[in-house]
Specification:
The structure holds 2 protein chains of 2 kinds.
Chain A: H1 18-38, H2 41-69, E1 73-74, E2 77-78, H3 79-96, H4 101-111, H5 115-118, H6 124-153, H7 164-190, H8 199-212, H9 225-231, H10 241-247, H11 253-284
Chain B: H1 2-5, H2 8-35, E1 38-39, E2 42-43, H3 44-78, H4 81-86, H5 91-96, H6 106-121, H7 128-154, H8 156-159, H9 164-176, H10 188-198, H11 206-213, H12 218-245
Antiparallel strand pairs in B: 1-2
Helix pairs in contact in B: 2-3, 3-6, 3-7, 3-9, 3-11, 7-11, 7-12
The chains are: A mainly alpha, B mainly alpha.
Chain lengths: ~290, ~250
């Protein structure tokens, strides 16, 4: 009997891989994506360096503002703390930004490429999460060295060393900001089921997101003051401002835990929104071509 | 304009994006001046004029050149540049002014409006000499920016895919976005000297604004005009060198 004789010819579905098998599948996607991303480490390094150059302008602009105001503290922030904040939001963004995710999903829907995923035993959202996770790991790994150099160079702007508890909370908020950024972008991408061209809309949303998340300066400094209160009610603050403020001890410890809870709720909200839009979208999706 | 309006939704979104940037710029400006009354010698009204001047200059560059400069790399990659080289018109003119981006044109008017509001706030007294000086220096700033963009775009001939062009342009605008005086302290002096004398990015908006709402700085004003002519000449030579190195990619 040859080896073919051992094969089961009973028609039907192959044996389900089980929970651990599923995890293994997405870990493999993560590993392959990681290798793919690390092929472009030169790009990463250049991009990281270029991204920090505008910091030089920010350092001197804020210096001029504090000199003009003739004060050490503005809205509870010293000059050094503002600069430390601006450095830290780069770390927040390193976790929460998902360049091209929404546009890629919308393009796959529009071009009919979505069928590639639909015919495979894959959950589209879990697949993309593994893929983006690999992006982030590769990015963090390749930019760790330049970031370390830059933060060492700018260590004078960090007035205090955070406690271990603060560091732990900071890492948790960063991980949650990654999940929030991912599900928010995914939700936007799902709009591709209903809108033919979303690129301009995405650009608009991302620009707004950049500003209201506190990337340009601490939300606490924003004028008029009512604007800061409104922005702190929105989910976007968790993408940039919140982790940085936790690191700098700008939020009392007793308020951090409830706010982490709110951050988790926003993650769940956008995960559900993306899932619902995905299911509704698939009902009207039709792919043509070979 | 007709081709832009064929994609109305996209066109409106692009305009909305420009307005959003303006709101961000003004919120940032308001936030800064809620904390202080002066930034490196610039009062609130003077700084608003600076913001308006920056916004106008960016509008001029983006409407006239930016899209053309970024598409230059595509013309090379696809071999379409051949069609332009065959025409009996100057190649630099054809490549630089191929399209006009109408979606960024409102920035020119809005920037002008901001400058007008600032002058009103400052109780500015009309002075034709200052206006003529401003027009000259602003044109110098446009010429400097255009020369820089043209030189960057020309590198596409060798790099074929020039994705860093927009990023470098953005860095260039970062340097012209704030008054030059903020860099005149500490270790930023070396930056100030380099980006004023060698690559005069820090003068592009500062010097035209100063002549209108502060005072004329004769040396740096002269340098804006002289360096803009120099950059225009050098970027043209560089563009021509790039064109000579161009090898058609089409069949």
């Amino acid at each position: 009997m040859n080896s073919l004789g051992k094969l089961s010819l009973v028609p039907g579905h192959p044996k389900a891989p089980g929970f651990l098998g599923s995890i293994g599948k997405y870990m493999n996607i993560l590993r392959v994506s990681l290798v793919e991303r690390l092929a472009y480490r030169g790009d990463f390094l250049l991009g990281t360096v270029l991204r920090f150059l505008p910091m030089i302008s920010a350092i001197f602009l804020w210096k001029a503002v504090y000199q003009g105001a003739e004060t050490e503290v503005l809205s509870n922030y010293t000059y050094s703390q503002v600069i430390a904040y601006l450095l830290l939001v780069h770390i927040s963004r390193m976790f929460s930004s998902m360049p091209g995710l929404a546009a890629g999903v919308a393009r796959d829907i529009r071009d009919g490429n979505l069928k590639r995923y639909l015919i495979q035993p894959l959950d589209f959202m879990a697949y993309l999460l593994a893929y983006r996770g690999a992006h982030k790991i590769a990015y963090i790994a390749t930019s760790a060295l330049p970031y370390l150099g830059l933060f060492t160079l700018c260590s004078g702007y960090f007035e205090t060393t955070p406690s271990l508890a603060t560091l732990g909370l900071w890492l948790i908020t960063l991980f949650l900001s990654f999940l929030l950024g991912y599900f928010f972008e995914l939700t936007l991408g799902m709009l591709g089921f209903w809108m033919l061209e979303v690129s301009s809309f995405l650009y608009l949303v991302n620009t707004l997101n950049f500003f209201v998340s506190g990337h340009f300066f601490p939300i606490d400094l924003m004028e008029p003051e009512g604007l800061a209160t409104i922005l702190k009610m929105l989910p976007f603050q968790f993408l940039a401002y919140f982790p940085a403020a936790v690191f700098l001890d700008k939020i009392p410890i007793q308020q951090i835990i409830p706010l982490v809870g709110v951050q988790i709720l926003w993650v769940v909200f956008f995960a559900l929104a993306a899932r619902i839009l995905w299911r509704l979208g698939l009902k009207r999706y039709s792919a043509f071509g070979g | 304009m007709a081709s832009e309006l064929a994609f109305r939704w996209n066109f409106l979104m692009k305009i909305a994006l420009e307005l959003l940037w303006l709101v961000i710029l003004l919120t940032f400006y308001k936030t800064l001046f809620a904390k202080t009354s002066i930034i490196s010698g610039w009062t609130e009204g003077e700084y608003l004029f600076f913001v308006g001047c920056y916004y106008t200059l960016e509008g001029v560059i983006e409407s006239l050149f930016l899209e053309n400069a970024t598409e230059f790399a595509e013309l090379i990659r696809k071999g379409d540049l051949d069609f332009y080289l065959l025409k009996p018109v100057d190649e630099q003119f054809l490549v630089s002014f191929r399209k006009f981006d109408w979606s960024t044109a409102p920035k020119i008017l809005i920037g002008g409006g901001l400058m007008g509001i600032a002058l009103f706030q400052l109780d500015w007294v009309f002075d034709p000499l200052k206006v003529v000086g401003f027009v000259f220096l602003f044109s110098g700033g446009v010429a400097l920016s255009y020369g820089f963009l043209l030189a960057l775009a020309s590198t596409s001939v060798w790099l074929v895919r020039n994705q860093s062009l927009l990023e470098l342009w953005w860095l260039f605008t970062t340097l012209m976005r704030y008054p030059r005086e903020i860099y005149q302290s500490g270790w930023a002096w070396s930056l100030w000297v380099f980006f004023s004398l060698v690559v005069p990015a820090m003068l592009v908006v500062s010097i035209p604004s100063e002549i209108m709402v502060r005072s004329l700085d004769p040396f740096w004003s002269f340098w804006v005009i002289a360096s803009s002519l120099l950059v225009l000449w050098a970027s043209r030579r560089f563009f021509q060198l790039a064109i000579r190195s161009y090898r058609s990619a089409s069949s």
